[in-house]
Amino acid sequence: MPTTPPDRPSEGVVFLHGISRSFRSLIKMQQAVDAAGFATRNIGYPSREKSLSVLVDDIHPAIAPFVEANDGCTHFVCHARGGLLARAYIARYRPALLGRVVMLGTPNSGSEIADILQRRLLYRLYFGPAGQQLVTARDVATEALLPAVDYPVGIIAGNRSLDPITSRFMLPGANDGRVTVARTRLDGMADHLVIAASHALMMKNKDAIAQTIAFLKHGRFDR
Fold first, then answer.
1. Please, what are the domains in the chain?
2. How much is the pTM?
């Protein structure tokens, strides 16, 4: 879990990776954001093994001291399910000086792939309770973890896929191979942008990195 020096006064950015990933998947993004003048904290967590509610408490001890160490506000940059985790975290442990949130390929209203696979044994074994929270029709408990947003959210969606089978047969409309563009959208979001990137590589895409920094600085994407 790399971090910038704790004595550096700055606005801070917390990074949360997606399911089946690690903090390493966001290092390129973190390095660019760090170079743009933000303090950063890149958090790893067991993304498949635990539900959102449990993960929120797991990551809090890593986030709380980072928030306290920065003079300015705390932003979040998240890939895929990391965006849902950020929403749940903010609902429970909202920083006093909450800044902006950037989501990349986050299934804010679920993914049809999870709908199709949720009852299959291999899917359940591999993705655990996390996979069951990615469906489009969430249960009441999961919905309660994700209340309406009242903070600036910028969402980047991809419309390129590395998986022609899921793109053609499982996902209706433009998609990144895992999530449709439509299901990344969120009521109350400040901005939404579609780029030529796949779900798996979006967080390393140069346009996604540049647009993330633009939203962190200005609260809007650079058109």
1. 12-218 (3.40.50.1820)
2. 0.93
Instruction: Give, as one character, the DSSP assignment of residue 175.
Output: B
Give 14-81 as a DSSP string: EEE--TT--GGGGHHHHHHHHHTT-EEEEE---TTTS-HHHHHHHHHHHHHHHHHH-SS-EEEEEETH
d(CA 144, CA 34): 33
- In Å, how far are 4, 14, 40 from 7, measured between CA atoms? 9, 16, 12
Give the bridge partners for 39, in sequence order. Answer: 12
Is the pLDDT confidence value at 4 over 70? no
123 membership: H or E segment, kind and range: helix 121-132
Cβ(110)–Cβ(138) under 8 Å? yes
Q: 111: which 2 tokens?
A: 């993914």
For residue 78, pLDDT over 90 is answered with yes
